[in-house]
Amino acid sequence: MIDVQTKMAGRALELLCLPEGQPCYLLDIGCGSGLSGDYLSDEGHYWVGIDISPAMLDAALDRDTEGDLLLGDMGQGIPFKPGSFDGCISISAIQWLCNANKKSDVPAKRLYCFFSSLYSVLVRGARAVLQLYPENSEQLELITTQATKAGFTGGVVVDFPNSAKAKKFYLCLFSGPSTFLPKALNESNDEEETRESEFTSERIPYRMARRGLVRKSRQWVLEKKARRRRQGREVRPDTPYTGRRRKPRF
């Protein structure tokens, strides 16, 4: 599941069409334990994650994610100043706004509140790419209608539309003049479909999803320091002792 989440985050970032080699400030809606945010950090971007689950945010803190985290309900709006973010991604989250968990919950109103506040916090001309699993065409139409009412243009990109396993929906929204809609991936990438998730009986240490590096290992520490240098942060110089485990003291 970590591998699938990371691939979807990578695809969402690709659909954002951000400037090459330029760190951006991004919003991750429904960030969960920070898996998507880790990918954004690996690509040199700064990010803020918002999630409704305290347990998931605690897990993100335990994993030492680099982004800032906020506890909040996206259906009540995104609480940031206008023009705060250069882009937004969301993985498997916004379809939950179609559910009414309380009598006072009206899906259409919650969706409009979410999209209108999202439109506000984005820089004009920025994009939002929201991966989702709609239950049916009516639910997808409800979501896209409220996004349009909030001021967004864009559309839905469906990768691998003829595949039961690999089919993915990405709602690509533009907060400025309407522009081209990115092309969807198709069945020519058969390997992508067959290798989307793999199971193993082997016990392995927790690894970074993208690069197979063991967390806290020397190579992991060196890559993290190099990434922070690219982001312009102040980092201590590397030494032969960098990443070396300290012996316990009694």
From TrEMBL:
Residues 224-250 are annotated as: Disordered. GO terms for biological process: rRNA (guanine-N7)-methylation. CDD domains: AdoMet_MTases (cd02440). Residues 173-248 form the 18S rRNA (guanine(1575)-N(7))-methyltransferase Bud23 C-terminal domain. The keyword DNA-binding does not apply. GO terms for molecular function: rRNA (guanine) methyltransferase activity. InterPro entries: Bud23-like (IPR039769), Bud23_C (IPR022238), Methyltransf_11 (IPR013216), SAM-dependent_MTases_sf (IPR029063). Its main location: cytoplasm. GO terms for cellular component: cytoplasm; nucleolus. Residues 27-100 form the Methyltransferase type domain. It catalyses: a guanosine in 18S rRNA + S-adenosyl-L-methionine = an N(7)-methylguanosine in 18S rRNA + S-adenosyl-L-homocysteine. It is found in: Cytoplasm; Nucleus. Keywords: Acetylation, Cytoplasm, Methyltransferase, Nucleus, S-adenosyl-L-methionine, Transferase. Belongs to the class I-like SAM-binding methyltransferase superfamily. BUD23/WBSCR22 family. PANTHER family: 18S RRNA (GUANINE-N(7))-METHYLTRANSFERASE-RELATED (PTHR12734:SF0), METHYLTRANSFERASE-RELATED (PTHR12734). S-adenosyl-L-methionine-dependent methyltransferase that specifically methylates the N(7) position of a guanine in 18S rRNA. Requires the methyltransferase adapter protein TRM112 for full rRNA methyltransferase activity. Involved in the pre-rRNA processing steps leading to small-subunit rRNA production independently of its RNA-modifying catalytic activity. Important for biogenesis end export of the 40S ribosomal subunit independent on its methyltransferase activity. Locus-specific steroid receptor coactivator. Heterodimer with TRMT112; this heterodimerization is necessary for the metabolic stability and activity of the catalytic subunit BUD23. Interacts with GRIP1. This is 18S rRNA (guanine-N(7))-methyltransferase. It comes from Mustela putorius furo (European domestic ferret). The lineage of its organism: Eukaryota, Metazoa, Chordata, Craniata, Vertebrata.
